[in-house]
Amino acid sequence: MKKYIVLIGSLLLFIACNNKKQKDIWLGKKIDFPQTLKELKGDKFSSIADFKTKTAGKQKVISIIDATCMKCIINKLNKIDILLSALTTKENNTLMVFVLNVNRADSLYFMKKMRLMITAKGLLLWDNDFHFEKDNNILSESENRRTFLLDKENKIVQVGNPLFYPKLLKKYQQLILKE
Hints:
Order of helices and strands: HEEHEHEHEHEEH
Distance between the termini: 58 Å
CATH architecture: 3-Layer(aba) Sandwich
Largest sheet: 7 strands, mixed
Number of domains: 1
Shape: globular
Strand order of the largest sheet: 2-1-5-4-3-6-7
Structural class: alpha/beta
CATH class: Alpha Beta
Helix content: 25-40%
Number of helices: 6
Strand content: 15-25%
Number of strands: 7
Radius of gyration: 20 Å
């Protein structure tokens, strides 16, 4: 009987110790914008160098979107832009940036059909082979991990999509206004 009590006690202690909230390994990670990315303005592309110059020293909310999915553009890209538009302003020195994953085979379709669905005011970056996620080692299937806040040095300070977890909106607000 004593063995069972010790075993159960050890198991409860193990569970309690492992339930501590662990720090997200992405927090503090420096993000780079690979040379393969292009900024999309209307139906024209400009170099990532121009984007880097324009956004240097500014906070950025990054959201990675599957841009060949109409539902993703309407229900994610456009909605998160609306949700965070009050926080991503010049006064707050914060930008909304969308990384659009569009493979080469779907590029023409995107430019002719999907691009017209985008109503967001944020900056659009074109990524034709997941370079942004691969080069930064942040490839994730979790939709919640495809939106995050970068500080002025491009380090991740918050991970999570406030569309899915509304409580995160307050955290984003606190971090953005703190800067």
